[in-house]
C-alpha cells in the first residue's frame, strides 16, 4: 500500500540529521500512517474507517517515542500533526457516517494519544512543559467513550454519565497529587479537581432524587458513611483538605437528597413514608457531622456550628411546605415551631460547642419566624397563637437567660420583644376574634408579667404587662361600663368629674410628689 510505504519511508527520514527534512517528514508521516490505517479498515468486511484512523493515530503517537530524534522542533511538528489527526478523527466519529455502536471504540482508541504525545516532552503530569496540558485531552476522550457506550445502550440514569466524569477527575487529581509536589499549605488546583469530581458525582443525582425513593436512600446512606469516615482521615494530605472534602460531600449528598425528597412529598408527591422522616434523617446526619467535627477539634472550628445551623434551617423546609399546603397544618406548625423554639433556647443557654453560639441561635429563630410568617400568610394555621406563642416564649426564655448572665443588661431589649410577640397579637384579637380561651389566657399571661416584673424589679414586663392588662380589662368590661353610664343621668357623671378635679387640685403638690416618686421608682427598675 502506498500510504504504508510512505509511512515507513517517513520514519527513516524523520531521523535524518537535517532539521528541515526531519520536520517535513515528521509532519507527513502521521498523515500517511492514518491513511494506511483507514485503507486497511476499508478493506475489511464491515470495517470502519474511523476505527482504522483512530488505531493509526494511536500508533503514530506511540511510534514517535521510538522513531523521532530528541530535537524538540521535530517532536513538536510530529505532535501537532498527530493532534490534528486525533481531532479530525474525533469529529468524524461524532458527526460523520460512523455507526453509533462504534463511536465509543473510536474514542477509546484515541483516549491514550494525548497523554502519550505529551510524554514526548517529559513528564506529562508533573513536567514543566506547556505541552503537558494537552494530556487533559485523554480525560475528555476517555469520558466521552464511556458516555457513548452508555448512550448506545439506552442508559437513562444520570449516574451513567456523571460517575465516569467524576472518576476521571479524581484519577486526574490522584496523578497530579502523585507527580507534582505541593508548594502551598493548601493546593488550590488539586483541591478544585477533587471538589469538582465530588460535585459532578453528587449534584446531578441530587437533582433527580425527588422522584426516586431508592436513589434518595442510596445517597443518604453513602452520605452518612462519608460523614462518619471523614473522622478517620487526616485533615491535610499534601496540601489537600481531605477531611473537609469528604465530610462536605457526604453532608451535601445526604442532606440534599433527603430534603429534596421530603419537599417533593410535601408538595403533593406520593410515598409510603411520612414527610418528616426525610428532614429528620437529614438533620441526624448533620448533627453527627458537627459532633464529630467538634469532638476532633478539626479546622476550621466554626464549620461545625455553621453546618449545624444550616442543617436545622433546611430540616424545617419540607414541614413548612406541608403547612402551607394545608396538610395537618395546625399540628405541624405547633411541633415545628416548638422544636425551633427549643433549639433557640438551648443554643442560648448552653456553652457547649457546637450547640451554642450565635450561628445556631439566630438561624433557628430566623427559621421559626420565616416558617411562622409563611404559615400565617398562607392562612393554613388557625388559631394564629400556634405561631406567635412558640416564638414569643422562645424570645422570653432566651432573654431571661441573657438577663441572668449579664447583670448590666436591661429588660427591654432582652424581654421586650418576646413579651410583645406573646401579648400584643392576642390583645389585638380582643376586637377582631374574641375567643374565651384566648381572653382568659391573655389575662393570666398579663397578670403573670406584671407580678414577675414587680417581684424581680423588671421594667419591661411590669409596664408592658400592665398596659396590656389595662387595655384588655377595658375591652372586656366596656359593655358593662357602657351599661352603667347609660343607667345614670349624665349630669351626675359631670358632678362626679368635677368633684374629682377639686380633690386633685386640693392635693396637687402631694400628687406631683407621688408622680415623681413613681417615675423614679419605675426608672430604677432593671
Automatic annotation (TrEMBL):
The keyword Transit peptide does not apply. The chain crosses the membrane at residues 50-68, 77-96, 102-121, 130-149, 161-179, 191-210, 216-233, 245-265, 277-294, 306-323, 329-347, 359-381, 387-404, 411-429, 435-455, 462-481, 487-508. InterPro entries: SCO7613_C. Keywords: Membrane, Transmembrane, Transmembrane helix. This is Integral membrane protein. It comes from Agromyces marinus.
Amino acid at each position: 500500500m502506498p500510504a504504508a510505504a510512505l509511512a515507513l519511508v517517513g520514519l527513516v527520514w524523520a531521523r535524518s540529521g537535517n532539521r528541515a527534512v526531519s520536520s517535513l517528514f515528521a509532519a507527513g508521516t502521521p498523515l500517511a500512517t492514518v491513511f494506511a490505517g483507514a485503507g486497511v479498515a476499508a478493506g475489511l468486511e464491515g470495517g470502519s474507517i474511523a476505527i482504522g484512523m483512530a488505531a493509526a493515530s494511536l500508533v503514530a503517537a506511540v511510534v514517535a517515542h521510538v522513531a523521532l530524534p530528541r530535537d524538540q522542533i521535530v517532536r513538536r511538528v510530529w505532535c501537532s500533526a498527530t493532534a490534528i489527526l486525533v481531532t479530525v478523527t474525533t469529529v468524524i466519529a461524532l458527526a460523520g457516517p460512523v455507526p453509533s455502536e462504534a463511536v465509543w471504540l473510536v474514542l477509546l482508541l484515541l483516549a491514550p494519544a494525548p497523554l502519550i504525545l505529551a510524554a514526548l516532552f517529559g513528564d506529562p503530569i508533573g513536567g514543566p512543559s506547556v505541552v503537558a496540558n494537552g494530556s487533559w485531552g485523554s480525560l475528555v476522550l476517555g469520558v466521552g467513550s464511556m458516555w457513548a457506550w452508555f448512550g448506545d445502550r439506552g442508559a437513562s440514569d444520570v449516574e451513567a454519565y456523571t460517575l465516569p466524569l467524576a472518576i476521571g477527575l479524581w484519577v486526574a487529581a490522584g496523578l497530579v497529587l502523585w507527580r507534582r509536589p505541593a508548594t502551598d499549605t493548601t493546593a488550590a488546583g488539586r483541591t478544585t479537581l477533587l471538589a469538582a469530581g465530588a460535585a459532578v458525582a453528587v449534584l446531578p443525582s441530587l437533582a433527580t432524587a425527588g422522584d426516586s425513593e431508592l436513589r434518595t436512600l442510596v445517597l443518604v446512606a453513602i452520605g452518612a458513611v462519608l460523614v462518619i469516615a471523614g473522622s478517620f482521615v487526616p485533615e491535610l494530605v499534601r496540601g489537600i483538605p481531605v477531611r473537609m472534602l469528604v465530610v462536605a460531600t457526604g453532608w451535601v449528598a445526604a442532606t440534599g437528597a433527603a430534603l429534596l425528597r421530603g419537599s417533593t412529598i410535601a408538595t403533593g408527591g406520593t410515598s409510603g413514608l411520612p414527610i418528616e422522616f426525610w428532614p429528620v434523617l437529614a438533620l441526624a446526619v448533620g448533627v453527627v457531622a458537627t459532633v464529630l467535627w467538634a469532638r476532633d477539634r478539626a479546622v476550621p472550628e466554626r464549620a461545625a456550628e455553621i453546618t449545624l445551623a444550616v442543617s436545622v434551617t433546611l430540616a424545617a423546609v419540607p414541614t413548612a411546605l406541608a403547612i402551607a399546603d394545608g396538610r395537618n397544618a395546625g399540628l405541624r406548625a405547633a411541633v415545628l415551631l416548638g422544636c425551633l423554639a427549643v433549639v433557640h433556647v438551648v443554643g442560648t443557654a448552653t456553652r457547649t460547642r457546637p450547640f451554642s453560639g450565635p450561628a445556631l441561635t439566630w438561624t433557628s429563630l430566623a427559621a421559626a419566624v420565616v416558617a411562622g410568617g409563611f404559615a400565617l400568610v398562607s392562612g393554613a394555621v388557625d388559631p394564629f397563637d400556634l405561631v406567635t406563642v412558640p416564638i414569643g416564649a422562645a424570645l422570653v426564655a432566651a432573654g431571661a437567660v441573657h438577663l441572668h448572665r449579664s447583670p448590666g443588661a436591661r429588660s427591654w431589649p432582652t424581654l421586650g420583644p418576646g413579651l410583645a410577640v406573646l401579648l400584643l397579637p392576642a390583645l389585638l384579637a380582643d376586637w377582631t376574634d374574641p375567643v374565651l380561651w384566648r381572653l382568659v389566657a391573655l389575662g393570666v399571661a398579663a397578670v403573670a408579667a406584671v407580678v414577675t416584673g414587680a417581684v424581680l424589679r423588671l421594667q419591661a414586663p411590669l409596664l408592658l404587662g400592665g398596659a396590656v392588662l389595662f387595655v384588655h380589662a377595658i375591652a372586656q368590661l366596656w359593655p358593662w361600663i357602657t351599661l352603667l353610664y347609660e343607667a345614670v343621668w349624665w349630669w351626675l357623671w359631670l358632678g362626679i368629674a368635677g368633684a374629682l378635679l377639686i380633690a386633685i387640685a386640693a392635693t396637687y403638690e402631694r400628687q406631683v410628689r407621688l408622680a415623681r416618686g413613681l417615675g423614679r421608682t419605675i426608672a430604677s427598675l432593671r
